[in-house]
Amino acid sequence: MEFLQHLKPYEIAGILFAIAFIAHFALKLLLKKLTLHASKTKNQLDDYLIKSISAPLKVLVWFGWIYFSINIFKEDITSLKKVVGYIDITPIFIITWGVLRAISNTEAYLLSRNANINKDSIRMISRLVKLLLIVSIALGIAQHFGFSISSLLTFGGVGGVVMGFAAKDMLSNVFGGLLLQMDRPFSVGDWIRSKEFEGTVEKIGWRMTRIRTFSKNPVYIPNSIFASIPIETPSRMTNRRINEVIGIRYNDIAQMPIIVTEVETMLRAHKEIDQSQPLRVFFNYFNASSLDFNIYAFTKTVNKNEYQQIKQKILLSVADIIAEHGAEIAYPTQTLHIQK
């Protein structure tokens, strides 16, 4: 210390710069070794966390040099005394920056995994934690500079009521977004539909949800809407339904029992039909130009293309069964009786 007392301020600042440079270089090597070691582990979370803190730690080293250098010169430059009082809280900002980076990278790590987790909930929780952290730090800094926290909270409460009335729609959309994350009636990538819209969910935001329709147009829907309308999520179906009405001629009424029986037998033997679900084949209607029977069954697959192929084969098989018994599929006809 006696050695430093004989040095001039700019010489001490130079020594501090050299120390900061060496510390920066040593920190860089340490982080490089930690990154190399972390890359060999199975869990990739440590890679994301090391990446989060590397930049803030380097900034913290150089802030130390700036802070101590200003303290050296403040005796000679009186205006620097006020600066020291303000930059005392800079480490809080740097640490907060590091924590926010850690939260963001943890979110990125969880989203990059193929685990069965709800990615929308992870994004929402991450945003809420960041918001709470920033608000807490802001209140702490306000108290540090002499502001009354109770007054700020009281003012915030009154202001919140005023803002609540002024931004009622916006708040209802925000809370609607929170409810979507809690109830999870659908997620990003789901196919949803209602009377007003139908499409694939691309993004669930704070205020609105973006849906891509099947005509590839984006539709932006306020989150509050979902609380007041029924939403269907076809992408979460467990089976696809076959529900067809087939008519034969009135002249073929004698063949109806055997046709219905063979169609049901064919469906019960079909490997792509889910036998645990309802399966019905019944003659049920005397139509104007046909005798109608109903086919009701569920496929095992939910894939649209596979479903269409299965349904196509079943309908062709039904046509073959009708033809085998000398019957014909009916079409609209009129019979004219001429009386002599």
Automatic annotation (TrEMBL):
Membrane topology term: Multi-pass membrane protein
GO molecular function terms noted in the UniProt entry: mechanosensitive monoatomic ion channel activity
Pfam families for this protein: MS_channel_1st, MS_channel_2nd, MS_channel_3rd
GO cellular component, one term: plasma membrane
Domain Mechanosensitive ion channel transmembrane helices 2/3: start-end pairs: 128-168
Residues in Mechanosensitive ion channel MscS C-terminal domain copies: 245-329
Record protein name field: Mechanosensitive ion channel protein MscS
Organism: Bathymodiolus thermophilus thioautotrophic gill symbiont
